[in-house]
Amino acid sequence: MIGLTDRFGECTVEKYQVWIDGQWMDPASGQWLETENPYTAKPWALIPRCDANDANRAVEAAYNAYDKGPWAEMTASQRGALLRKLGDLISENAEWLADIEVRDNGKLKAEMYGQTQYMPQWYYYFGGLADKIEGAVIPIDKPGMFNFTHHEPLGVVTIITPWNSPLLLTTWKLAPALAAGNTVVIKPSEYTSASVLAFMSLIERAGFPKGVVNVVTGYGHEVGSALVEHPKVARVAFTGGEPGGIKVYEAAARGLKPVSLELGGKSPNIIFEDADIDNAVKGAVSGIFAATGQTCLAGSRLLVHESIHDEVVEKLLALAKTANMGDPMSPQTQVGPVTTHPQFEKILSYIDIAKKDGATCVLGGQAATGQDTEGWFVEPTIFTGVTNDMRIAQEEVFGPLLSIIKFKTDEEAIELANDTLYGLAAGVWTQNIGRALTMSKRIRAGTVWVNAYRVVSYMSPFGGYKRSGLGRENGQAMIYEYLQTKSVWINTNKEIANPFVMG
Predict the structure, then answer these.
(1) 0.85 exceeded by the pTM?
(2) CATH number of 56-263+468-486
(3) What pLDDT digit, counting tens, does each position of 146-175 carry?
C-alpha cells in the first residue's frame, strides 16, 4: 500500500512503500527517510530507505519478467495497447499526480499540472511506435544464404532521475524502454520520490505484468550504485548532476553497459540588436525564473548586444519585479521555493561568490523574507557586469540567478556562447533568418531555440554536447536506444563449403 498516515512530531505524514515485483513492500532495511515540503520546510512524507538487498530484489524481478512470463510473450501491439492505457490513466489522474509533485518539489502547480497533462503523449507516441519497428531482409552477397535482421529488447533498464521534474523525466525514459520490450527498475531522487511511487498505482491499474516496472528509493550510494553495477542490468538511463553522472558512467563502463546521461548546462540566451525586445525579455524570464531556475536547460547566461543592453536590463527588471512569490499551489504564484535545503544554501553561496567576483546585483540577491515565504525561497536575482570567466558564468547554479553579459559582434556572441564546458541548450532572439540559421549551426548545443525558450516535445530529440551528457531522449530514434539488432543467417546450400575457411 501507499499513503499510510503516520505521526511525525506535530505533523501527519504519508508513509510510502516500494513497488517490487507487482507488490507494495517495506524496504529491507526497515528504515524510512523524511521528505520535506519546500514551501513549509516541514516533513510531509516518509520514503523507504532501500539498500542493495532491495536493488537485487527489484532487478531479479525485472529480469524474470523480461526472460519469461506474460511480458516476454506479448506482441509489440499488445505492449503498445498497455502503454496507451497507461496514458489514459495518467490523463485521468493528472491533477492528483501534479499535487503530489508540488508538495514534494515545490514547483508551481501550473508547471507540474502542465507536465502531467502532457505526459500521456509520450505513452501514446511510443505505444504507437512499438509495432512499427521492422527488421530487414538483406540481399546478401553469399550464395545460398538467407540473411535477415530483427530488433530485440536489451533486458533490464535502470532509470535514475533527479528531483526537479521526477515524473516527466521518468516518462522520457520509461515510455520508449517499455515500448521496446524491456523491463525497468526506477530509482528517483531521495528528495522527490513520492510522485513516482504514487505513479506505480497507475502501472498496476493499467495491467502491466508483475516485475515489468519496479521502483526502489533511497540514497544513490546505498541503492543506486547497486542497480548500476548489477550484472543483470543491461542499460542505464540517468538524468542529474554532472558528479553523479560521472559516477554512473564509470560504474556502467566496468560492466560494458550502454548509458545515456542528461547532465547540466550553462545555456546562453542571446538577444541581438534586431530582436523583438519585449518578447526577448519574456524569453529571458522564462529561461531563468520559470521553475525557480531549477532546470538543466535554464538560460542562465543572458548575452545582450551592447546597443540594447540598457533597454533590455530596464525592461527585464520591470517584468521580474512583478513576479509573485509564495504558495506554489496558488494560481497567482509565479516563483516558488527551491526544492531542497542544500540547493537553497548553494544558490545563496553563488550569490556571494558573484558579488565577490565583481558582478553588480541589480535585483534580488538574498533569501526571500516576508509573508508566504517561510520555506526555502530565494529572490529572483539578476547580475550585470558579468564576464564569461566569472564562476557564475561558468558553473551551473540551478536556481533563479541570471548573469547578463554584453557582446559587440555576432562572432563574439558565438565565442561567448561556446565558451563553456556545457552544451545543452541555447536561445537566439533575432528577426534575421540568416543570422538565426547561422547561430543555430555554430552554437555547440543539443537544442537551439529561435525566438523561443524552454520548449520540449515527445517528437523532438533532446540532449547535450560536451559535458552536458551523452545520447538523446525523445523522438522516433529513441526507441532504438533501447533495442539491439540481431542478424540471422540461414544456409540453403545442400553442402557445407571448406570448413577450414571463413564463409
Answers:
(1) yes
(2) 3.40.605.10
(3) 999 999 999 999 999 999 999 999 999 999
